[in-house]
Amino acid sequence: MKPTFKPSRAPWSTQPSLKEMTREVGIDFDRFIDGLVANRSDTELAAEFNVDPQIIYRLRDHFERYGIHSIMGQD
User: Fold this and answer.
1) HEC letters along 5-34
2) Max Cα distance, the chain (Å)
3) What is the pLDDT of residue 74?
4) CA-CA distance, 29 to 69, in Å (whole number)?
């Protein structure tokens, strides 16, 4: 019987946290999360934070893929 390959599951990633990402673009993290909870559109949030809707799209996508926090580190 051929052994099954199991990839390593390191407890860290190189993804920045959503909090870091919002800070980098000048968006208040707590207000951004409140907007997501309220199911506001990218356009609405972009107008509130005075940023391009594409920024909100990318932040929302990061949240949906990775959550709020990512653990950063290395071996």
Assistant:
1) CCCCCCCCECCCCHHHHHHHCCCCHHHHHH
2) 60
3) 47
4) 12
Two tokens at 20? 């870091």
Backbone angles phi, psi at 72, to 5 degrees: -105, 145
User: Coil, helix or strand for 72?
Assistant: strand
Counting every residue written for the chain, the total comes to 75
User: Which segments of the chain have a pLDDT < 50?
Assistant: 73-75
3-state secondary structure of 73: coil
pLDDT of residue 23: 96
CB 70 within 8 A of CB 17: yes
Tokens 């996508």, located at residue: 61
Look at residue 60 and give its three-state secondary structure.
helix
